[in-house]
């Protein structure tokens, strides 16, 4: 969103993702049960820190102005105060598989956020939806998104992955296992099995684990030391640089897949590789933010 704002010829204000009008979410948020989401916890703190570091205009909850256009990276929750605004949705990254939660939410017309990012794009409350590739456009249309609203612009952070090859990460030619925070987000994960897969797929190479920032690091480190002793473990660091230097990536269905696909890495994940290839983000030398800004100006005009 910050990258896009650099190409907008208007006054821009920012807010962390927020809830406005869903009483159930308010109860959960106050009780600390949403600390694993972008509404609260570590993710919100990182967002606030980023915005303050950039020195941008901050308007928490979008309460201070009557905005002409709203950009958001998720339509799982549409706050009440933007429901009658022009909304441009920008794909954030990888979407969750269509599991039983997805089908339950669709069949019973439950709140979209209960199925997490598998419901991305299905609000149809936006005037435009900017996506990473033709493959993603097809994916969203097949789910029910309106094709004429979807624009294949590429998305910032995933449209110039070659730049990540210029790095000072000290390791090369290894298997990188990027973990998830599924357990922290109340989903099942067999972490022992994941670690065993890393050992099996490593082909004798060094195994490096990059832990998800929102997971329980002490527990994760203990499990890795038990089932894959001798592995290198990072709790922080530039994951994109780690992907650029690896030969093999193992993950579940994280957005790191998009970087690995664009860098043509060997990938193991929960998703079929033939389904993944069409999703590879278009590479346009980092001009996606400008492409999206042009669409925003069309709506503003």
Overview features:
single chain; 301 residues; alpha/beta; Rossmann fold; 5-stranded parallel sheet; 4-stranded parallel sheet; 33% helix
| CATH overall fold name of the largest domain | Rossmann fold
Q: Tell me the total number of β-strands.
A: 11
- Helix/sheet category: alpha/beta
Cα Rg: 20 Å
Rounded to the nearest angstrom, the distance between the terminal CA atoms is: 20 Å
Q: Point out poorly predicted stretches.
A: none
User: What form results from the Cα inertia axes?
Assistant: globular
How many domains is the backbone divided into? 2
- Count of individual helical segments: 11
CATH class of the largest domain: Alpha Beta
DSSP strand (E) fraction? 5-15%
Q: Multimeric state of these chains? A: single chain
**Mean pLDDT value:** 94
**CATH architectural name of the largest domain:** 3-Layer(aba) Sandwich
What is the element string, with H for helices and E for strands?
Answer: HEHHEEEHEHEEHEHEHEHEHH
| Helix percentage | 25-40%
Record the strand order, biggest sheet.
9-8-7-10-11
Major sheet characteristics: 5 strands, parallel
């Amino acid at each position: 969103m910050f990258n896009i704002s650099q190409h907008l010829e208007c006054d821009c204000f920012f807010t962390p993702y927020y809830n406005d009008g869903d009483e159930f979410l308010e109860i959960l948020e106050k009780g600390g049960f949403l600390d694993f989401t972008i509404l609260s916890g570590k993710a919100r703190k990182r967002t606030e820190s980023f915005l303050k570091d950039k020195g941008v205009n901050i308007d928490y909850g979008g309460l201070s102005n009557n905005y002409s256009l709203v950009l958001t990276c998720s339509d799982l929750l549409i706050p009440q105060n933007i429901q009658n605004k022009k909304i441009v949705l920008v794909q954030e990254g990888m979407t969750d598989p269509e599991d039983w939660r997805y089908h339950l939410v669709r069949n019973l017309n439950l709140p979209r956020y209960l199925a997490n990012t598998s419901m991305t794009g299905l609000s149809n409350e936006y005037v435009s939806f900017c996506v990473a590739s033709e493959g993603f456009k097809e994916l969203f249309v097949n789910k029910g998104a309106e094709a004429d609203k979807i624009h294949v612009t590429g998305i910032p952070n995933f449209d110039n992955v070659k730049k990540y090859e210029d790095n000072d990460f000290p390791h090369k030619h290894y298997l990188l296992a990027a973990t998830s925070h599924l357990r922290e987000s109340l989903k099942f994960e067999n972490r022992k099995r994941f670690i065993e897969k890393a050992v099996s797929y490593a082909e004798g190479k060094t195994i490096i684990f990059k832990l998800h920032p929102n997971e329980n690091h002490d527990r994760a480190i203990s499990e890795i030391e038990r089932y894959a002793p001798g592995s290198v473990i990072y709790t922080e660091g530039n994951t994109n640089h780690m992907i650029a230097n690896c030969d093999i990536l193992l993950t579940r269905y994280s957005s790191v897949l998009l970087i690995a696909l664009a860098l043509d890495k060997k990938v193991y994940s929960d998703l079929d590789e033939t389904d993944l290839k069409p999703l590879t983000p278009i590479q346009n030398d980092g001009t996606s933010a400008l492409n999206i800004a042009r669409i925003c100006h069309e709506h503003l005009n």
